[in-house]
Amino acid sequence: MTVDFFIEMAWKSALISAAALALAALLRSRAAADRVLVLQAGVVALLLLPLVSLWLPALRIEIWAAPAASAVPAVVAAPESGPVLPLTAAMQPAGTSIWDDPTPLLLIAYLAGLLMVGSRLIAGLATLRRWTAAAREVTCPEWRAALDRARWAAPDAERLRLLVSDELPSPLSWGWRRPVILIDRETLDRPEDAEAILAHEVAHVARRDWPALLLSRLVSAVFWFNPLVRWLEREVEQQTEEAADSHAIGALEPSLYARTLLNCAPVAGALPANSIASSAGALARRIRAVLDAGRRERPRGSAWTAAAMVACVGLAAPVAAVELVEAAPVPPPSAPAAPAAPPAPAAPISHAAPPAPSAPPAPVAAITVVGQAAPKAPLAPPSPGSPAPLAPAAPPAPPAAFAPAAPGTPRPPVPPRALVPVETLVAMRIHGVDPGYVGELAALGPAYARLAADDLVAMRVHDVTPAFVRDMIRAGYPNLTPDQLMAMRIHGVDARGARRAASREGRLPSVDRLVAMAIRGEI
Q1: Which of 294, 351, 458, 499 lies at a 20 to 30 A Cα distance from 43?
Q2: Which of 147, 138, 144 is nearest to 165 (CA)?
Q3: Cross-strand pairs, 174
Q4: Could you tell me which residues are beta bridge partners of residue 161?
């Protein structure tokens, strides 16, 4: 999990939540139950978002990136004399701080928020279990008769229990396999509200609203940093309560049902349960929906609702699979080469007389002593008719470097013949760049036989071994540059991960793609 992954989850969850809320708003002329289905589809899409982003094939979209500077270092000729800066300090890997890589800090902040929101959800479930364990069966005849009349709407009415608790502030229902309706002592003393309260809570049980509510709370905990997801959760809860009101009001007087809503106190602490009570703003909205005959009679279940659900899922799937990648930067155009100078015209060939044949070389002694004249061989007399022999040439002058100098004259300094500075040789010795290491790399191919001394030291520092280079060549990555090898070594890219990434994507990923996948933990 990296910073890029958190940013990706943030904008994707915001886009899916906004789409679900917008599609539900377009169905404002339909029943509340239809809007609940669309919002619940958005909740399921958010719940599957991390899994789809990590495991399904990515839909890559290239985005524009500024052209990067050339990665080819400029070759600067070293001065003939003068001090050479030590290279050992530059060879050491630079230390990183928390501001250079904020991933650990961001992960700690996310886990802290998840722990805070998740602990509230777990505490609410524990509170419901404690209240249910301490509750007692309702034996009031009016409440039992109202429960029998409302049970026809619940498919699992036999398992539905009606309990009273002394700690409960307002009636609510929760549970899936063994649903429970809890009422408080004050509500138990108002049997005239039994019909409306039980009709509402039984509607929740019949519609399976509690598992959907729990999923929306779970999604809100996972994406706690996104306000649109929390807005989606509140809208799911509001529309669920309005759908339960529409389901329960069929056999009741609207004014009586609205009075019952006003008599119920809101549940404190936002417990993970379906409650007939709600906040002041949501309660006013529900009462208007109950008393408005036009809103009560809105149709439900149409092709528009199905189309909205398909559109929500159809938008969420490609959004979850989208992966934004930077387009390859276009290299800047190189400067035009200077026009070559026209070749100088060749000098005309003069037809001169052929040179006279030279005399055969005179035999010389086998050993010549420097500083003494070599003995001359006797010249043979010329034969009749032969050309006159050439005069012996003067002996060449000795080089100036070997000319005897006057006494006390300092000799000029001899220019250095070494091409590698002493500091680089020391760094090669310290980090283990020996002839064996260089020879093993050179045996892997021409690209590794002409590496600079600085690159060899840097590769040795980052543990780029000949075995690692050989494995990457066998995995399909020949002629890797030292920077690519060091980047792959730093981020843990090996031959096995490269083959796994190639099998997953159906083709051989680039080196940058491999490093990005390793940073995100995908290989």
Answers
A1: 294
A2: 138
A3: 180
A4: 180
